[in-house]
glutathione transferase (Salix dunnii), 434 residues
Amino acid sequence: MALKLYGAPMSTCTSRVLTCLHEKDLDFELVLVDLFAGEHKQPPFLAKNPFGQIPALEDDDLTIFESRAITSYVAEKFKETGYDLTRHQNIKEAALVKVWTEVESQQFHPAIAPIIFQFFVAPLQGNSPDQIIIDTNLEKLGKVLDIYEAKLTSTKYLAGDFYSLADLHHLPYAYYLMKTPAASVVNERPHVKAWWEDISTRPAFKKVAEGMNFGEK
Amino acid sequence: MALKLYGAPMSTCTSRVLTCLHEKDLDFELVLVDLFAGEHKQPPFLAKNPFGQIPALEDDDLTIFESRAITSYVAEKFKETGYDLTRHQNIKEAALVKVWTEVESQQFHPAIAPIIFQFFVAPLQGNSPDQIIIDTNLEKLGKVLDIYEAKLTSTKYLAGDFYSLADLHHLPYAYYLMKTPAASVVNERPHVKAWWEDISTRPAFKKVAEGMNFGEK
């Protein structure tokens, strides 16, 4: 049975999983969840994810959610297929993938998520972006990216000289950020900028980015 | 060579890793990092973790940080030793451990961390706890725990009928929460309360909790 991904292409967390599925060259069916109709808060979807958030993945009789858990499951189950996202044959490199995957989750995400919310979600809710929230979080994000800048002077990617899940997890939020004036936080840091240009032009993500039109007409 | 953990027993993230090391019955050396002297922001520690946060783990010539990456590395490298925290022999159960580990990280942690900060860290910095921040986040935490309550009616632990890394990761923050008036958010939910009493009385955590005296004289 094919994998079934429940989500929406414009969603950051769905596109994180889509990028992983493409890197692994997997066949899957994308089942659209209509966020504007609140389908993710209705019982059929809540049975897949009680938190009412997309995406969710069905693999035969297993249903899982949380985008980073899904990518980790997919990368591990299909470790011999497509691109190796976890360096599963080298325990030290695999450990560094885990470290920088957690850095995305605990350091990068909490700073970038409120910025993307203000630029893209607030206007859909009829509010102007709150510049104080944007500035406060841009300062936090800048500090995180200062550390990335230093790291990327010694290795080509975050976990080492290999593209991995750790880099991939950054793509969706950074993609939206780069469409805003806050893109300067990336562009002002030469190694971060080069890293971004490298990872965002991989064929797997370019395919996903075509569907990422959050907040656009 | 023995594992070396750099941290402080009162720190939530250090105690998360300590609990994992005890569950795995591993020998290790705890190297104390003096937070009050700012040792974690000095070059020797920054060489281990550029974000200047404890803990960091040295395993021979490998140095890693981020508590959840460390527990995942330890649980996987030593999968045949001590208690099986990842259900590594069953890909479906292992996937559910990943899911609920991410739930802790993305849903539980962002709600509980500001509460613990207000109760324990703010007073050390000479500030009174901000009741608005506490109340706002207690409401968020309550919604997360409503979902835990429903889940724990059907399985004994979060990922299934087995204790795992997903449960373990909750211990340090919940331990401090239970010392505050906000403990009611757990105690009012009978299945969450029973789960908490079960996981917090495991010998591995009881040993760690003895050193968790954050903010106490």
Remarks:
- Chain B has two domains: 3-83, 91-208.
